[in-house]
């Protein structure tokens, strides 16, 4: 049986955020999954953008916390990666669809090759990063 | 359509190599000289320069201008197209538009990239914040997602993808300009047994990083006639779509911008997909070609494998496909790589395919794919239909 690594031992830092995405990263300090919400059309969007993908207007965007329980839309097993991921392959990358109507990519924790499938129910796993941030990863719900 | 008043009168292409020992401008100079020799034109007759994207040129926000300086081309129209792998076909479309608008008469389209020798890209996009921290290597990972999802929705016979890989490799064996490392025949089993890069994307699904350059001379039909060119290839249909369905969060990743782009190109050309005599689809991954069969209308959605099973894609088959090997078997000359299949289409339509000449040269279709967005298929899709003396 092939082991798929969980990437928890890889040293990584929170990326440089942009002026409009900073609230998301600050939310991870409290393990909160914050997603942009367009109050004009009543829809969420991911990833965080400078404006609404629906209306092109930025002023109606706000941040809302979501539970992050969703299911796998698709996935792949990464077998070749750049540092610092090199030599930690193979690991999963999953696209997870949330009931709020967004798809968020992430690495996985504790999901085996046999268990992984499209439709698998997952929930957030918050992996600590330097400076109090956390990386959103996915574990079985 | 306006493009019908323009004609490609010459093409040129360097050999594709795993790492160029020459500077990117030296490759550009080789393409220029070959085009001048083929057309008998003086350098001064070129009054337009349009470049494709280039990873070597990417560090310079004056790339088109600097290249006109280096090659000493005095031009009335100077432009770069930054649509990734769509850039070469899109540059040709823009050349035709500029000529038709009277901005210039004769355009040199130059596609040159030496990404292996000198990569200057420092892209500013979503990846640094949202995918690089996850260990996403790039295109193979994204195509892993797409392929798994396609299989989930429709089922997928991987041996049919292998059939496309084998047909393209057969073309590369007959193409002296293809990367030497890739010029050995393969079988469907070789394809199926090649190692996984990002499951279920295999090594033989994927393009190899290479360096190379190609180019075209495009001029008005009037000028082509005045100068007595007997071989003139005209774009008779073109469709381009960037950020298809990006106003929505959740889309079907097996739908691509080739659907609207292909519809537009075929409508302009007055043709159906089944009328296409040779097909030169952008091939960064094998499955991208199968998705194009479905999106452009060669077959119905979800029936790509059946379509592949029913057709012969070799140069002497019923639907010749990327007859020079495509990028996957000739090597991907960086962001100039979209030129490889475009040049092959022009070569075939001019009847200069040599040992791999297709029989029916009444038209050809060329496509492009550019950019890898977040959890989608690709950013830009283009489709172009070309015909001799159209």
Can you tell me the residue ranges of chain B where pLDDT is under 50 for at least 5 consecutive residues?
none
Give a quick account of the main beta sheet of chain B: strands, pairing sense, barrel closure.
Answer: 5 strands, mixed
What fold name goes in the CATH topology slot of the largest domain in chain B?
Peroxisomal Thiolase, Chain A, domain 1
Adjacency order of strands in the biggest sheet of chain B: 1-7-4-2-3
Enumerate how many helices of chain B there are, as a single number: 13
- What's the average pLDDT of chain A? 97
What is the CA-based Rg of chain B, rounded? 19 Å
Task: Give the ordered list of helices and strands of chain B.
Answer: EHEHEHEHHHHEEEHEHEHHHHEE
Q: Approximately how much helix is present in the residues of chain B?
A: 25-40%
The CATH architecture of the largest domain in chain B can be given as 3-Layer(aba) Sandwich
What is the overall pLDDT average of chain B?
Answer: 96
Describe it for me?
The complex is a heterodimer of chains A (141) and B (390). Chain A has one helix at 22-28; strands at residues 33-38, 43-45, 61-66, 70-78, 91-98, 102-106, 121-128, 134-140. With 141 residues, chain A is mainly beta. Chain A has one domain (22-140). Chain B is of the alpha/beta class. Chain B folds into 2 domains: 2-121 and 210-226, Peroxisomal Thiolase, Chain A, domain 1 (3-Layer(aba) Sandwich); 128-207 and 233-385, Thiolase/Chalcone synthase (Peroxisomal Thiolase, Chain A, domain 1). Chain B is built from 13 helices and 11 strands. Chain B has helices spanning 24-39, 63-70, 87-100, 127-130, 139-154, 158-173, 188-193, 221-226, 258-269, 286-296, 304-310, 326-330, 338-349, and strands at 6-13, 48-52, 77-81, 106-113, 196-199, 201-202, 212-220, 233-242, 279-280, 364-370, 380-388. In chain B, the strands form 3 sheets. A 5-stranded mixed β-sheet of chain B has the order 1-7-4-2-3, sandwiched between helices. In chain B, helix 2 links the parallel strand 2 (48-52) and strand 3 (77-81). In chain B, helix 6 (158-173) crosses helix 11 (304-310). The N and C termini of chain B lie close together (11 Å). The A-B interface holds A 7, 10, 12, 14-18, 21, 43-47, 53-54, 73-82, 85, 88, 91, 93, 95, 97, 101-103, 105-107, 118, 135 and B 126, 128-137, 140-141, 144-146, 148-149, 152, 195-201, 246-250, 253, 374-375.
